[in-house]
Amino acid sequence: MAKIAYQKLTDHSSFFWGLLGFHLLVIAAGLGAALYMEHHGHVVTGMSNQIVWGAPHVFAVFLIVAASGALNVASFSSVFNKLAYKPYARLSGVLAIALLMGGLAILVLDLGRPDRLIVAMTIYNFRSIFAWNIYLYVGFIAVVGLYLYVMMDRRVSRSETPTRIVGGFAFFWRFALTTGTGSIFGFLIARDAYSSAIMAVLFIAASFLYGLAFTVLVLLTMSRETRHELISEDMLGKFRGLFILFALAVLYITAVFHLTKLYAPDYREVETFLLRDGGIYTLAFWVGQIGIGLLLPLAILVFRGSGRHAWHAVAIAAPLFLIGGVAQMYFTIIGGQAYPLRLFPGMQVSSSFHDGVIAQYWPSLPEVLLGVSGVSLAMLLTGVALKVLPFLPRPASV
Amino acid sequence: MTGNRPVDEGRRGFLMSSVAVAATLLAPGVTLYAMGGDAAAAATAPASAKVRWGLLIDAAQCKDGCAACIDACSSAHGWQSAGHPETDAQWVRKITATDPKTGAGFSAPVMCQHCANAPCVDVCPTGASFKRADGIVLVDRHICIGCRYCMMACPYKARSFVHEPVADQKPDAPRGKGTVEGCTLCASRIDAGGVPHCVEACKTAGHGAILFGDLNDPSSDIVKRIATYRSTRIRADLGCDAAVYYTNI
Amino acid sequence: MIRGARIALLLALLIASQITLAVGEESKLVPHPPKGRGEQCVAATDFMRRNHMNLMKHQRDETVREGVRGKAFSLTGCVDCHAVNGADAKPVSYADSRHFCRSCHDYAAVSIDCFQCHASRPGSEKPHAAQGVGSTALAAVAAYFQGAANDRK
């Protein structure tokens, strides 16, 4: 195979600057929102003692899940030796790091005491999945950074071996990372809506889908910037196939997850709530995740995804998958908390502390801004990275 | 020293060396002064792993409309309502439960259950959520970063997040915005040989529904009572091994 | 290192201030922490100036995590003895720049968060009696800090 040539972004359209400027504005707004929340306390958010994790976590977990998935394209090329994906391997690594940083920034700024971040970085409780995750996150950035290095360094990349070894390690690491993120919820025995090992598997399947959606979206946007199609027709077909495969996997695991829960009488109550009576959460699930986020893009890709429509189909499906991802997180994170803890199963309970009632939650503007600014941070980092180093393939070698 | 916040290296080096010098140069008894006569109380011994503090709550004795335990706790620790029911802290609340089939029910106070296998302790990333040697589960608010994972993990909804700045705290009960808090079983009183405020208040109100004692001591009232009358613990099925027992629920 | 230098500078200034004070000219260049109640602090004054943060941090962990109470370096104790009265003859809070704990910190641009949670004025209840510390306790403190210093080597 011919040597692949790479490029950095050089002469910029006003579109590029416009995008960067937009993301900068959103980030500034997000930082302002974080300061505002930090100054007044979380009382200015929609969060409460019932819904302790709100919109910021929705975006943060979504980005972190997508980050590990974004690495897939690189893994295909180096671990599974699918050479067609190789031109995108660098971008996929950069995107993975950027998405993770975007997610982590939100998590940190949503802490009650962000000023104590240093504590979180230096004192660990090794029984905590959260603490493992801190290692997994930092390690992920390091491993992917190294991976980028062995792919890009002139001398090291002459041999295939380092790329394959580090790539394999990165692949393993990304599984650990998503498993860890999924387990943050899966290990919560207290909450009926979570408490399942399938949670981690579901998160892994979802990560494939969202990571790929981000990768394809960035490639399509940058095609406009470089004025050349960065995705050849051939590759478009491959991505389409992967999208369909991943989306079906998410659908399947989601179905298994809810069916097993429905089957156990103990969990039937919470499932009925989430899937039927949960108002906004039920909507987020059926309309957001399943309808807009999975079935609609699947239909588009299957029925209109080939031939001259291919480009449009993929360009529409990718953002739809991402919207579905946010809906999935909203449903999972907020819906799961809205259903009250059952201290006395089978009894009707009431108290001054909102026991036994469905919690109300409406995200406030600052927390939404903080959440969205994480996405913007990831995109800004990616944009700047593409400008600084040759991460994008040259069209001729695609 | 779990809670020691890391300090800037250079400065720490400076401090440490100066401390070491001062402490070695001065003979024992010279640097630290004994205080005047009013300082009779000796330093208390560290919490002992031989004991495990617990409560036994008799729902039959817990009277409708009485909130003595809650009022005592709130005024002692200063967690009064700030007018925002959704976000106001509640270290203890009374839950009224009714069986929808039979109509029978009970009401009883629920606070931190001071589990032996506390999920909040397991999940806390910094170790701020911890269990003392004597079984009391606390938040070390000096290293709590306010991530609220413990609140996600607690099956009892026993913890509150401080959503707003706090002013005019009690000297004995520091608390502040951005950290998670909950029932401390009045650890400072227990260390001084006392009983928790709720236990005392319930007794003063004439109900005596809450019994406090050492679950490891076979001769204690609490152990004798649970050995005689059947008691349960909330969500015992989860295997957290709570230190708060209930009867007549 | 900068902070280390800052302490050194501050200490030098403090010592200088004592000399100038002895000569009778009050210097406006240095902080003048109000004197605490009683004759002495819980440890030698210059030792306190340099080490109060570490002493308190150590005691903090001992109290919160192990349940040892009534020892010398209790924050409640500092607040009791070092209360500074305002115009209304009531102790000022940390919001007031005259508060003892701000007398040097403002000067040295140190900011502490302790009083976001801890009361910065003595309570109405019986003040916490600071406790006399015997030689064993001191030996323990000394050993602790030496241990900490040795760990670093």
Automatic annotation (TrEMBL), chain A:
The keyword Transmembrane helix applies. The lineage of its organism: Bacteria, Pseudomonadati, Pseudomonadota, Alphaproteobacteria, Hyphomicrobiales. It is found in: Cell membrane. Signal peptide: none annotated. GO terms for cellular component: plasma membrane. It is a multi-pass membrane protein. The chain crosses the membrane at residues 15-37, 57-76, 88-109, 129-150, 171-190, 196-220, 241-260, 280-303, 310-331, 368-389. InterPro entries: Electron_transfer_protein, NrfD-like. This is Polysulfide reductase NrfD. Belongs to the NrfD family. Keywords: Cell membrane, Membrane, Transmembrane, Transmembrane helix.
From TrEMBL, chain B:
SUPFAM superfamilies: 4Fe-4S ferredoxins. GO terms for molecular function: 4 iron, 4 sulfur cluster binding; metal ion binding. This is 4Fe-4S dicluster domain-containing protein. InterPro entries: 4Fe4S_Fe-S-bd, 4Fe4S_Fe_S_CS, DsrO-like, ET_IronSulfur_Cluster-Binding, TAT_signal. PANTHER family: PROTEIN NRFC, PROTEIN NRFC HOMOLOG. NCBIfam families: DsrO. It comes from the Bacteria. It holds the Pfam family Fer4_11. Residues 53-84, 135-164 form the 4Fe-4S ferredoxin-type domain. It comes from Rhodomicrobium udaipurense. Keywords: 4Fe-4S, Iron, Iron-sulfur, Metal-binding.
UniProtKB/TrEMBL annotation, chain C:
Keywords: Signal. Residues 1-22 form the signal peptide. The keyword Signal applies. This is Hdr-like menaquinol oxidoreductase cytochrome c subunit.
